[in-house]
Specification:
The chain has about 150 residues and is an alpha/beta fold. It has a single domain, classed as 3-Layer(aba) Sandwich (Rossmann fold). It contains five helices and six strands; from the N terminus they run βαββαβαβααβ. The two termini are about 30 Å apart.
Length: about 150
């Protein structure tokens, strides 16, 4: 196994987020690697903003939905000792934005949860599957129970 230097944890705020985060933190500790987290908003409207798809975690947007999402990300960051400068909240298509952050930040490993889809859901793909087949770095898909 490679010595990972920078691990990116992709979170979706599901009930199993801690399961995935604990795996990422354990690998980061084992390799003495930097741990970063990313969450991509694809379920709330994007207000007109001058900053593009990257959302500042330190400035108040005035949007209650957005502030709630920021608070969730920052709580996970605090729980797993991730510096605010290593947390990203973005708007967009999750698989594209996660890959973008991984490449920009020179990430060695992306850790993401996977729900083990079956049938038509498997054919349509998932975020974890898309990341696995697109990322230029290693990807760990943590199997989640339904």
């Amino acid at each position: 196994m490679n010595d990972y230097k920078h691990i990116l944890l992709a979170v979706d705020f599901s009930k199993q987020v801690n399961t995935v985060a604990e795996k990422a933190k354990a690998i980061a500790n084992k390799h003495q690697a930097k741990l970063s987290i990313v969450h991509v908003l694809d379920n709330i409207p994007m207000p007109d903003a001058y900053y593009g798809t990257v959302i500042s975690l330190t400035e108040n947007s005035g949007d209650p939905l957005l502030e709630a999402e920021k608070a969730k990300l920052m709580a996970i960051g605090e729980q797993f000792s991730v510096e605010v400068s290593n947390q990203w909240l973005l708007w967009g298509i999750p698989k594209q934005e996660i890959i973008y952050v991984a490449e920009q930040q020179q990430v060695d490993l992306i850790v993401v949860g996977s729900h083990g889809r079956h049938g038509i859901a498997l054919l349509l793909g998932s975020t974890a599957n898309s990341i696995l087949h697109t990322a230029k770095c290693d990807v760990l898909a943590v199997r989640l129970k339904e």
